[in-house]
Amino acid sequence: MPGPSNTLLIEGTFEELADELSRYLDDVRKKDGDTNSAIQTEIAQLLEQNQKDEVLKKLVTGSAALNSAPEKEIIAAYNLLVHLVRQSPNPNIFLPKICHNLSQPITSSKSNGPGLALSVLTTIFNILPQENDVRYHVFLAILRVVRSSNSFELLRSQLKSLDTWIAQWETDEEDQRKLYLSIADVADEAGEAEQSYLYLLRALRTIPSDEASSADARALSLRALKAALAHPTHFDFQDLTSLDSIQALRKTDPIFFELLEIFTAQTLDDYNDFKDEHGEDFITSTAALSDAQLTRKIRLLTLASLAASSSARSIPYAHITHALQIPSEDVEIWVIDTIRAGLVEGKLSQLNQVFLVHRCSYRVFGEKQWVEVQGRLDTWRASLEGVLGVVRGERERMVREREREVREVEGKANGGFGGGNTMGRGRREIDVGALVD
Question: How far, in Å, CA of 375 to CA of 359, rounded?
Fold first, then answer.
């Protein structure tokens, strides 16, 4: 995979190496049944005329044969071709074709073919200057190979550098979208639903506002919407509803948009009403989603909404049973699942048959939620004022108590000090008398 830049070191003149590679290509093609292959003869004349770019065109066009070369020779042969191409004043016109060939199956080694292709593609990527936009096409070829070999793990660590590369290549929004979609496809086929959705979302964000209602934007928006609904641990849909292309579905696909709104802010009752109105077939056939999965998700979200709207921060089991439409004996299971989903935090009280809410996630945060927050802040303020009043009263009591104790001590001290003075004066009088004598 892409890493630090490196260099190909191959000895020989351009003419010598081109002749060597052309002979090799002829041999491979003849073994594949093309007995009329004459690349070496064709480039010999071009070399005499010093037409290097024409020589390279012949070599690159014939390089597709390298995919059927012996496994041990593939990397060396491709590296030689890349070395020759780099000697052209216009190497960028040849590299995309080489990348295309490498993204095709290597027939001589079905098991190790993807690894061989990735090795050569990585070499090409790393020998190119960082700002060279041909790296973009090389990376797309790498993605195709990773996708065909289902080796997403090889790609995961490299995605950390993606934003830097995109900035270096100065790619436009359309090329960025193509790249993000390619990564989303690779992740999806590898079962990486979270990563796939992340790059779908990034692709959506590249769509300009004036193209939000286009056919491509609609198709991508529906794909992202379905992915978000189907993902078992995705519960926050604000990242979708804030996008212009998703809002455009309100007109083009109102039923899908209605379904999204239910999972954004509504409850199980609303989801059941939706199915009654549009039929469960819309979920399972038209949308190609699982009703069981969606029902589970909306139950978890319904409990989160119930917790958020509870001013007492205490929800009786009976309320949960009614809201989630479940048997009373299943309440604790659903509460635990909602806690595991990260939607709420709290404690179950089996004795009192209530769920004590410590923290909850707001599914949407609008005027209603601000009013709730204000109410809770007022309650906390009143509580704090009560606490401060108690503290202030206790402090004043302690001050008064200390002042009283000080006065008592001073009173006792003053009484003792007077008696001591009299005795002292008596002693002084006696002493003075003795001195007189």
Answer: 16
Which tens digit of pLDDT belongs to each residue from 209-226? 999 999 999 999 999 999
pLDDT of res. 309: 86
DSSP readout, 405-424? HHHHHHHHHHHHHHHHHHHH
Sequence-distant (≥ 6) Cβ neighbours of residue 227 within 8 angstroms: 193, 196, 197, 200
Residue 62, number of CB atoms within 10 A of its CB: 22
**Sole residue written with tokens 């008398």:** 433
Tens digits of per-residue pLDDT, 389-420?
A: 888 888 888 888 888 888 888 777 776 544 44
Exposed (0-12), middle (13-18) or buried (19+): which is 78, by Cβ within 10 Å? buried
**What mean pLDDT is predicted for residues 32-41?**
86
| Whole-number average pLDDT of the chain | 88
In terms of DSSP bridges, do strands 354-360 and 314-316 run parallel, antiparallel, or are they unpaired? antiparallel
By residue count, the chain amounts to: 437
Position 214 scores a pLDDT of 96
User: Which residues, at least 6 apart from 305, have a Cβ–Cβ distance to it below 8 Å?
Assistant: 265, 267, 363
Contacts of residue 48, Cβ cutoff 8 Å, sequence gap at least 6:
none
Exposed/middle/buried for 258, CB within 10 Å: 0-12, 13-18, 19+? middle
- The secondary element (H helix, E strand) that includes residue 15 is helix 14-31
d(CA 225, CA 201): 10
Report the pLDDT value the prediction gives residue 369, as an integer from 0 to 100: 58
Tell me if 283 sits within 8 A of 291, measured CB to CB: yes
CB 70 within 8 Å of CB 24: no
pLDDT score of 389? 85
Q: Are 372 and 312 in contact (CB under 8 A)?
A: no
Sign of CA dihedral 281, 285, 287, 291: positive
